[in-house]
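Q: Predict the assembly, please.
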Amino acid sequence: MDKSLLSKTAAAMMTPGKGVLAADESAGTCEKRFQSVNVDCTEENRRTYRGLLFTTPGVSQYISGVILHDETLRQSGNDGATFPAYLAKNGIVPGIKVDKGVVQIPLAQAGEKVTEGLDGLDKRMAEYFKLGARFAKWRAVITIGDGIPSHTCIYANAHALARYAGACQAASIVPMIEPEVLLDGSHTIERCEEVTEATLRATFAALAAYNVSFEHTILKASMVVSGNACSRQAGVDEVAERTLRVLKRTVPASLPGVVFLSGGQSDEAATAHLDAMNRMGAPWPLTFSYSRALQNPALKAWSGKAANYAAAQKAFAHRARMNGLASQGKWKPEAEKAA
Ligand code: 13P
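A: Predicted assembly structure:
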């Protein structure tokens, strides 16, 4: 465990004014996204599209790290350099998604999932380090519904996150722990706040129990929002206030930073929420680690056509810049129009 490398990696990821691009969609998720723009989800199309994002001119001004899928970590761009080597050369920290997706927890209610991927993780970590990955993501999924989440679900996921985080640090890779409370459902924002608090409390207790170093861990959090089918949709300031309140109650001040997932929020809502939280101020740097809220306009602009490459890069650069501003509390809705 190289603590000085872990500190250096975490500090680089949390560079002021920058955030992390999540480009680690599984082939299944990629298929859904590509289908929405009528593009075949082939390995070559995935390589082309991700290469488009990574080589966007000027993007390293706003992007400090990229979460890659196993497939992408091993692919090369059109210049012949492997993607992790290309990113590192451009001052962007390459990361890797290491979980193997979710399964139903036996004997629990339907919808109660736990994340798999712990078996053999130490060997995979050593290989990922050699391939250039310096941080790793693991996503746990907590669903809100009638009588769920249960303690079983919250604890099973907290312990898996803690074991994975320990394996990361032992391999000198910074863990980006992602306990995602889903926004799907008709639940209120109050219920989301309660579940997020319970989830984060259990997660940090498990990390402590497994001797995970908080100084070398990044939290990828979901924001506290109204369920997407709830009749009352909370406004920007309420989301920011509730999210910060929960984080302050549960997240150690020693963490180098907190990044957020977008979770299905609109592009602009994800930016506005991050901006509002940074205006309010927090004990840690707060930035983005979005997939959809960074990529949606670029994917649409590209639509699988080489002729759209530059337009897609422009759309991606714009969202990266907007979120870079939001990570400093300097975004304004008018800035969106200046695209
Ligand atoms: P979204 O921003 O689309 O929620 O994706 C972030 C992510 O990495 C999910 O694991």
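The mean pLDDT is 97. The first strand starts at residue 19 and ends at 23.
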